[in-house]
Write the structure tokens for this entry.
Amino acid sequence: MTAAPAYCPHCGTMLEERRREGRSRRFCPDCEWVVYRNPDPAAGVLVVREDPPSVLLVKRSSAPAAGRWSLPAGYLEWDEPAPDAGIRELHEETTLSVAPADASLLSTRLRPGAHGGYTLVVIYVASAEDVDGTPSAGSDAAAVRYFEPAELDAAALEPEYRPVFEDAIDTVTGDQGAGGSPS
Ligand SMILES: [Zn+2]
């Protein structure tokens, strides 16, 4: 759900605003349908290399954040588990393959999305040792390369993801993450 609908999706009546469960929600006065708005789920996989410690990022070629370096990620299909979606997006954007058992949950981010909605991004991490293939830019990616921690300073990142990138690298160096609590 992105933009809040103006009309009831079931009977077409113009929706009203009602207080329900502590929030103002759109409500159909005719069929009593309540519109619950939820974030759109997305998933991605960060591949990390141990020597030197670094994380694989893609340069986005389309909105949002076109031209910025970010994680390979995309929206879930309606019946697709989050790990499968993250792995699929990794393959589409970098041509790399990884088995679901080798992708671990790292963090989540709630990000403003299109049309006034939000996207909940579920982020996995996988070791380059468990990944098949050589990174190369696929769909939605203009370029793909590994970044060491010091290189993140100068890179045009999607800035909200910076602590997540650092936490991903920390999984191979054994450091404890400092700023990567889920949001
Ligand atoms: Zn209705």
Observations:
- Helices lie at 82-94, 149-152, 162-173.
- Residues 8, 10-11, 13, 28, 30-31, 33 surround zinc ion (CB under 6 Å).
- The chain has a mean pLDDT of 92.
